[in-house]
Structure formats: C-alpha cells, structure tokens
# Entry
Amino acid sequence: MADVPLTAADFPPPSVEEWRRLVDKDLKGKPFTVLQSPLEGGLSLQPLYTPQDAPPPAEPPGVAPYVRGTQPLGHTEGGWLLCQEYAGPDVAATAEALRDDLERGTQGVWLLLDAPLGLDVRDEATLARLLAHVPLDRTPVHLEPTTDVLRPASLLLEVLAKKAGAAKQALLGSLGIDPIAALARHGAAKVDVARTLAEAAPLVTSLLKDAPGLRALLVSSRPWADAGATSVHELAWSIATGVEYLRELERSGVSPGEAARSMQFALSVGGQFFPEIARLRAARLLWSKVVAASGGAPESQAMALHARTASATKTRRDPWVNILRGTAESFAAVVAGADSVSTSPFDEPLGTPDELGRRLARNTQLILRDESSLNRVADPAGGSYYLEQLTGEFARAAWTELQRIEALGGISKAIAQGDVARVLTETRTARDKAVRTRKLPIVGVSEFPHLHEAPVQREARPSAPANSEGAVTPPQPVRVAEAFESLRDASDRYHAAHGVRPRAFMANLGTVAEHTARSTWISNVLAVGGIEADEHHGFADANAAAELFAKAGTTLAVLSGPDALYPEAVPVYVAALKAKGARTVAVAGRPGEHEAAFRAAGVDLFLYAGADLFQLLKTLHTQLGVA
# Structure
C-alpha cells in the first residue's frame, strides 16, 4: 500500500459542543462552574476560550485605543526601558549605587522620596549630589514624592537647569506631582488636591513646550496596591485619579489633551501572571476611552505606563523565592507592553537592598530582553482568546468601579469619606482568609517552608509612622505573608531563649505507605509555624508511643495516619499520651462524624486542609509557651 501524506484536515479538532459533552460526562453530575477559577474583583477564569469569546482587536499596535501597546512596533525597536527604584535612606550610598547600576545595564532611575521610607532630599544641593553620576541628557529620571509633591519637582528642574549638557528638549522622565497619592497616604488634613493642581498648571503648560519628554504629573497606584487593593480596584482608582487630574487642570486652563500628555502612570504587577497582563492592557484601553471622551486627540490618548513588581507579594522568609516572583511579574509587565519596568530586589522586604539584590533584579530584565528575546515581538499577547477576553472583563469591571467612584464625587472624596479605606479593609480581610486557609499559598512561607534556612541580613529601614490625623486613617502597607511570618518570628525568639525550636511529637499510625502522604503534609504545616516535627512510627501499641513521647521533651503530640484506623486508635493513643504528660494532642485530618467522640476522648484540635491554619498554629504556640 502506497504511503498517503496526512494533512491537518485529516485531524479535525472537536467542536466546542463536542468538548462540552465530554466534559459534562467526566464531571459526573457536578456543575460546569467547578472548572471556573475565581479571581479577586469578582472575575473568574474559564477552562476554555474560543474565537467566539473574544476575537482579536481590530486595531494594530500603536493605534488608539492602544490595547496592543502605544508603539506600532512594540518593543522591537530598543525594547522597554529598564528602570530601577531607589529609596535610600543614605543619599551618598544611593548615589554610588546609581553610578554602578547605570554602568551595568540600568537605563532609567525612579526615586522614591521623603523620609522615613524614601530618600531624604530636602534641597537642591542634596538632589545634585544624588544625581551627580547620572547623565541627565540620556537617562530618564522619575520622582515619586510621598509628602510635599511640588517641592521635589522644582528641585529637579533647578538641578537640570544647572547640569551641563542637559538640553531641555532631550530631558526624559517625570516630576511626580501626584497629590491624590499623597492624600491617600496622609489624609485630607495635609493635602489640598485642587490647589496643588492649580499651582502645577503653569508648569504643565511650560514643560509641554520646552521639555515634552518630561512629564509633570504622576498617577501612582502604590498607596493602594501596597495596602491590599485588588487588581480591579487598583486599576479603577488609578483611572479615577487621572480623571480628576484632567478635570482640575481643565479648570486651570489646561486642555484634557495637554493634561493627558503630561501624565505618567505607575501600576504594580502582582503574582497572577495572565490576569496581570490583561489588566495592564485594560489600563491603556480605559485611559484611551477617558481621554477620547474628554475631547483628547488620538495621540494624547496613549498612556505612558510604568510597571513595578508588587511589594505586597514579597516575603522576608525564604527571600530567594522573591527572585522568581520578580521574574514572573516582570515577564507579565513586558508581555503586556509596559513602557518601563522596575524589578524590585529580592532583599527589599528585609531592608535596604545590597549590590547583589540590585544586580539580580537588573539582570532579570536583561535576560528577558537579551536572552529570552521578549523585545522581538510586537504585542506577544495579541490574539489570545483568553487574554483578549480577560482584558475586556478587567476593563468592564474597572469601569463599573470607576462609575461608582464618580458617583461619590471622585476619588478624592471617596478617600476623604473613608470609602477607599472601607474597600481596602474588606479586600484585606478576604485575602487574609485565603492566606490563612492556604487557598492563596505562599511558597517558602505557608507552603514548603525551610525551617532551618540561613537568615539573610540587611540594614533595616525605619518603620512608617502611624498616621491618624483626620477622620479617616490612611491605609498602611501590608504584605500577604506577614501573618505566617509572625509565627516564624516567634519561633526564632523561642529558639534564641531555649536553644531549640518548639517541637511536636508525631505518632504516625499504620504502615509507611499508609501514613506518608498525611505525615509529610503535617510536617510541612508544623514547619509553617516554626515547629519541628519529631516523627516516629512502627509502634507495638499506644503505650510504646507514649514511652517515646515522654522522652521527647515536648508537651505537644500529633497523631497522623489513615482515616480507617482513627475510630479505634485515636481514643487509646490520646489516653496513653496524656497519661505521659501531653498537654495538647492534635489529630491530622478532618474528624467528620467522629469529632464529638474524639473530643470526648481528649483530642484538642484537628489539622486539615482548608482550616484556618494560622489560628491553629497560633493555638499550638500558646500551648507550647511560644510568645
């Protein structure tokens, strides 16, 4: 028989209807919704996307509404701008870091200003020393002040005016005038948004004429992103900030198109890779629509978008994992078409990053550009049914929230009235619950912790002072890992005081094959709380296990084994262990219908997936005398 060549037509893909019938058969009566994955902000991911969900946008890259990026060729001509952020607190040391980093691949500088969390730059001379090694004629400099939002802008302009070779037309960057971010941080008692923008209006106009590459205004989502906002709220509140700036500047004689061209947006990028790509694409779409509705021409609708890796996702425990988090977040920012990207050093949560942390952060982007070739494709996300659909969903959800904020009178009033603080409290509570139950796992902290990791030491930064002025308390930065990290901190203090870690005696019942999966899980859970698992198995009887427990030097015992052995074994083992001094006996797994009987037998608590593990571990700390 002669060979017959095969073509794609010989393997037709199944239709969506055929796929759905097969899925329903495999679900065996369960609803199709079990295959959907919920996202924060009320969105959800579907198990399959098709051309019917979201056809590719008609507009190519570089064309309004800029879903596919603001440049026709994307990053293929030179790539995105590799920025690094600096926050001090030592100005001289930061100046040297700037010189080193610019010599080794950094292209742009982002300065977080104002003590105690940022660089303490109070006068022109200090800023000049800070930027002494920065070639201002070819290096974009971005300011992000956290208190006085006008003074740093004037200082930078004074330094630029005196710096040799820095022609105004060549200057790039942003002056960081962002009064709403300051309002979010400090409250209405210290910030007058309308007056600040009225004072900034002449500067906006003059820079558009003399230094068009130097943007006067900043829209930074940092105060909300660091305080626990969902991706939808962060996006919506950022667009709402831009809307208020357009409105207030128009009152001062600056047209919406001019105001839009004077704005730099800076958004944080979290750990959900594909949703974050969609969200950044949605940001450009929404801003284009806002500016167009305000009368701005297509060229003024292009959002200048800076993306920074999120602070809230980083951990102090097992901080090396932050390198991987930063890589995924930077990758998402680049694929989404951000104009500039800042990758935070892995050691940033520990204090002031050192040269190693900055180098690894910088090289993360250099590898994405030079070795992974992400700069060789214009809009790599374009045409994905999944991402196109999700982009639209993010845009619609954020637009709904934007309309709600506008109905309150705008973002400034929403902040002053406490609405933003209320939403942040709700979202943090929901996220904290997900973290505590490990529905939102944190590798190295709540999952697969390294109990005996060598600590990474960095110079500590000053803590942010509590700000309680005014009727509304401003949101405070929070990292998702903080709750579980507090348990590890308590374990460290116990170790320093006693020379050993708090310990649990684990009695593994049944054969190795029967108990290994559960005992491994329990050992991992105990390590999350900084508790060492002293594992034993192969007992002749409960009394033999109790004799070993008496020598273990702890008051906590954990029984772990197959469910089938529990009804008969648990009461006997609990009695024997408590007779030998066990103050607390925990059982691994859900008790189900046996809970009442087990508790009557003396079981104090149960450790199982889906429980509030933070509270359970906190209870074990109390029982073990861990403060």
